[in-house]
Recover the amino acids of this structure.
């Protein structure tokens, strides 16, 4: 491991110690990351990739009265709208 890889490994292991969710996958595997379920993992940085599980992002869309679908613009905060529109909250799903 080089210094940058070591720093990343320390960051992931410290997050594990702090109670954050960690995800893992085999380096040669095309599957998506899976939640680490071991309470005492055997860290194998040569064979596996680890990461801190990302938090789902939240977006907001505006649907104007009389329109079937919301506008294509997404906002990171609820936008100001007129009385005839509604805000739709969207949350990313992370596997």
């Amino acid at each position: 491991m080089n210094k940058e890889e070591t720093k990343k490994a320390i960051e992931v292991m410290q997050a594990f110690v702090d109670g954050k969710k960690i995800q893992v996958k085999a380096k040669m595997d095309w599957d998506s990351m899976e939640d680490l379920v071991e309470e005492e993992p055997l860290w194998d940085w040569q064979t596996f990739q680890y990461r801190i599980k990302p938090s789902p992002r939240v977006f907001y869309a505006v649907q104007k009265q009389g329109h079937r679908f919301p506008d294509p613009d997404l906002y990171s905060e609820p936008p100001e709208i007129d009385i005839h529109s509604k805000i739709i909250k969207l949350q990313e799903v992370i596997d």
Remarks:
- The radius of gyration is 20 Å.
- The CA atoms of residues 62 and 87 lie 5 Å apart.
- DSSP finds one helix and five strands in the chain.
- The longest strand covers residues 58-64.
